[in-house]
Amino acid sequence: MATLSTHVLDTAAGRPAPGVPVTLLDAADAVLAEASTDADGRVGSLGGELTPGTYRLRFGVDGPFYPEIVVAFRIVADEHHHVPLLLSPFGYSTYRGS
């Protein structure tokens, strides 16, 4: 089974983003897990063991332009998946981390 973690970094402030609500949803938008980033901007484990499929991470960033950011991704292998979010007031990026 695959596992999942995430990390939110505030690139405008140059530091982690603590206290960001994160929701893991499946392809049917059913909520699988909810957490908030810790003081280091991380959620170390979210959703337990996941099977292959399409998932969404919803970040409640409550920014001046983006109230939330949704990142859709696929799990295709039984390995750890890390989905970081780099956040600024008017933009964001994400990638498959390690």
Largest sheet: 5 strands, mixed
Beta-strand percent range: over 45%
By DSSP, the count of extended strands is 9
User: What is the structural class?
Assistant: mainly beta
Alpha carbon gap, first and last residue: 16 Å
Average pLDDT confidence is 96
Q: Pick out the low-confidence regions.
A: none
Please provide the ordered H/E string of secondary-structure elements.
Answer: EEEEEEEEE
What's the number of domains?
1
CATH architecture title: Sandwich
Give the radius of gyration: 13 Å
Description:
- The strands form 2 sheets. Strands 1, 2, 5, 8 and 9 form a 5-stranded mixed beta sheet that branches. Strands 4-3-6-7 form a 4-stranded antiparallel beta sheet, with no helix packed on it.
- Helices cover 0% and strands 52% of the residues.
- The protein contains no helices and 9 strands.
- The radius of gyration is 13 Å and the shape is globular.
Q: Can you give keywords for this protein?
A:
98 residues; mainly beta; Immunoglobulin-like; globular; 5-hydroxyisourate hydrolase; purine metabolism; Hydroxyisourate_hydrolase; hydroxyisourate hydrolase activity
How do the strands and helices of this protein lay out in sequence?
Layout: E1 3-10, E2 15-16, E3 21-26, E4 31-36, E5 42-43, E6 53-59, E7 69-75, E8 80-88, E9 91-94
Parallel strand pairs: 1-8
Antiparallel strand pairs: 1-2, 1-5, 3-4, 3-6, 6-7, 8-9
Enzyme class: hydrolase
Function: Catalyzes the hydrolysis of 5-hydroxyisourate (HIU) to 2-oxo-4-hydroxy-4-carboxy-5-ureidoimidazoline (OHCU).
Keywords: Hydrolase, Purine metabolism
